[in-house]
Amino acid sequence: MSTTPLDFTGQKVIVIGGTSGMGYAVARHVLDAGGTAVVTGRTQPNADEAAAALSAYGKVVGLAADLADPVAVDGLRVILTEEHADAALLVNAAGVFAPKPFVEHTGEDYDRYQAINRAFFFLTQTVAGNMIARGTKGSIVNIGSMWAHQAIAATPSSAYSMAKAGLHSLTQHLAMELAPHGIRVNAVAPAVVRTPIYEEFIPKADMDSALDGFNSFHPLGRTGTPDDIAATVTFLLSDQTDWVTGAVWDIDGGVMAGRN
Q1: Most buried of 115, 124, 137, 220, CB within 10 angstroms?
Q2: Is 164 an annotated catalytic residue?
Q3: Helices marked H in 55-106 — which ranges?
Q4: Sign of the C-alpha dihedral, residues 14, 20, 22, 27?
Q5: Given 12, 24, 113, 160, which residue is catalytic?
Q6: With contact defined as beta carbons under 8 Å apart, do 197 and 97 qualify?
Q7: Where does the pLDDT of residue 74 fall: very low under 50, low under 70, confident under 90, or very high at 90 and above?
Q8: Interatomic CA distance for residues 252 and 64, integer angstroms
Q9: What is the pLDDT of residue 259?
Q10: Which of the following is catalytic: 113, 164, 198, 204?
Q11: Other CB atoms closer than 10 Å to residue 141's CB: what's the count?
Q12: What pLDDT is stored for residue 1 in this prediction?
């Protein structure tokens, strides 16, 4: 990785799911490097709170859309075109994670994961379409998952993993289709990262101790942090990786390399 500092001066990033965790960290890294950001959250209060906190680092706008609601997603697509068509950077970072045995999954469980992919699909279509219309080169990064590569007995995640594998595949297809327009599309596949996503099934008070239990799961001896992921995502967004597209990079403390 280059030691040249990243520079996003004059560039705008849209972070879908940018109000917490990895998405929030990505927005902060881009702002720190001179860019501006649009972060989306499920509700306007969430978006406003994140935007207020991030404003200490630079210019940021918070937008709301429940990604499970197609009408809300369509509304967000309109806003992104009318007010943020100048964005040439996009990160799809929203997610939910609720491990459950395959035989216990309901239709609602399955649809919940697929709804996020549907939102990513059409929001990316809008942002990429805006880049093409402006003749602007750009970069898109999807937050995938190590679980899309490998099943983990302790966290049965069939529907989640199926959706993330689909996102990895979308990454490669879009890389091919958008390359003639100078738009790069990559993904990252994190292992266990300390983000609020685990509050879905772990009480907040127990979070640190529960995630500490996964330290030894990673050959490097610790779980990841949002900044671990954001550093690589922003590298992929930058022109320092302008010959990288269609890649799915493991950021997993060595999990895919093997086990301790």
Answers
A1: 124
A2: yes
A3: 70-84
A4: positive
A5: 160
A6: yes
A7: very high
A8: 30
A9: 72
A10: 164
A11: 28
A12: 47
pLDDT digits (tens, 9 = 90+) for 112-145: 999 999 999 999 999 999 999 999 999 999 999 9
Under 8 Å CB-to-CB from 41, ≥6 apart: which residues? 17, 18, 19, 20, 47, 50, 62, 63, 64
The tally of CA atoms less than 13 A away on the side-chain side of residue 148 is 21
Q: Please report the pLDDT score of residue 248 as a whole number.
A: 98
Do the Cβ atoms of 32 and 56 come closer than 8 Å? no
Q: What type of residue sits at position 252? A: D
CA distance 165 to 223: 22
160 assigned to active site: yes
Cβ neighbourhood burial of 100 (10 Å; 0-12, 13-18, 19+) = middle
Kindly provide the b/e burial profile for residues 222-231, where b requires at least 16 CB atoms within 10 angstroms of the residue's own CB. Answer: bbbebebbbb
Least confident of 72-76, 100-104, 152-156, 185-189: 152-156
Res 138: pLDDT: 98
C-alpha pair distances (Å), 234 with each of 23, 28, 45, 256: 11, 10, 26, 22
**Average confidence score pLDDT of the chain:** 93
Q: With contact defined as beta carbons under 8 Å apart, do 195 and 21 qualify? A: yes
Q: Residue 18: what are its φ and ψ, rounded to 5°?
A: -100, 15
